[in-house]
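Minutes, project check-in

Agenda point 3 was the complex the collaborators sent over. CS summarized: two entities, 458 residues total, and the question is how they sit relative to each other. Sequences were read into the notes so everyone works from the same version.
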Amino acid sequence: MSEIFDGFCRSVCAQVKHATPEEKKDIVRELSDHMADHAQALEDAGYSHDEAEQRAVDAMGDADKIGKELNREYPLLWLLLSRIPVFVSIILVIILVLPFFAQLYCAACNIQARISPESHGVSHNGHISENIIDIRQEVPNTNDIVRFYCADVVKDGDAYYAYISVCCYDKWIFGEVSPQTLYNIKYSDDDIGGGGSSNGGAAYSTRSIPVEYGQESITATYDHFGAYWLVTIPLSWEGVE
Amino acid sequence: MKKQKYYLPRRRKAIKRIALCIVLFLIGSFVCNVGFLPSHALRETEKYYATGKTEVIDRQFGLPVDFTGFGYFVFSANENALMHTPITCIPILSWSRCVAATVDCTEDRPIQAGFHSITGSKKSGCFVFFGRVDDADIASVEVTIKYVNSDESVSATVLPVQEFIKKNGQRYFCIWSPKETGEQSSIAAYFTVTGYGADGELIYSTKIDQGGGTVMG
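CS then shared the predicted structure for the full assembly.
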């Protein structure tokens, strides 16, 4: 670009205060192309090269005035609105990277509880459960689903115990399960609840409840902050002496 | 036309970036369970304790509890539950909850009350007492803290409820008392809530046995 065009473009760009370097390059390219076309036409009409360039610049008018008019076409608001989200997005990515990987693990645990909770491991004193059941119950006031997945009857001395295995997972696979939910499941009036384990995506608990020989079922109740449900779990005595 | 030629790319770029930012925000909220707003932390607490959705009754700033980051306390309630929740903002932009104190209100009582024992760093801390007055005859309420000291002596502090918080036709209260610190500190504390009628007659008194404790670092 000739010096005379370059000087004109710099004068114009000096007035465009909120243009980014890329936008200023576009302005320079457009102005210089326009002036070069005009100068070429003047040269073709018989003007000398220098005179054609000078006349092309003169024809553009006052550089400051053009620059001020162009400046209005580059409002600061949209520049800020395009810059701020970049900053916020970077912060968001930094915040989300670690939780995202943790949530992937939770999601895997959630899926396991939905599909095959027994693969989480069910063992009572070395006895591996074979009596797989599938009773699911929504927990009011939460997003949790409780799933009763094993119900074994085991003889211990003269007494019989039902081993009830239950898991809990969130309806949303990335959701965190509330470990409180399983604590609030009771198997009798004087049951004070029991512990369990939680891996974030699912919670598991196995409880042993004394039962009478031949008892057909056992009831599990949930009564918490006004939410109530009752589930009847059938017991299988097959193979129990 | 010339105006649009310069103006639109900048606007289009801004809109695209804002949309990307919103998508990231939604991923954070729904996939990563990151609480970008204090209300997220309250919703998580409701879910954790299975109380159902609660409405904010009062927010408490400036309790004498030292902890890292910025935070405050929310007293919220619904028909069946009262909840007092510490909500903190750590480390950046992420709001999280600590252990909350809850009260199950499903049993009929003239006063539903709970305590929240909050311990911060530097041995700071306080007891917060929150509740709902369900008996219309009760005109005033006071909470008594009975301290059992290390020398087995007993001392008591009475905290009158100065003003009820009225919301949705219900009367609530949320008061606090700093914990004793130092060598004279008590080894146990018991709480009682008492309701009086308009003429000062005793209507109801009971131990406050529901609630919880939170240690904030």
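Noted in discussion: The longest strand of chain A covers residues 144-156.
Follow-up: revisit at the next meeting once the mutant set is ready.
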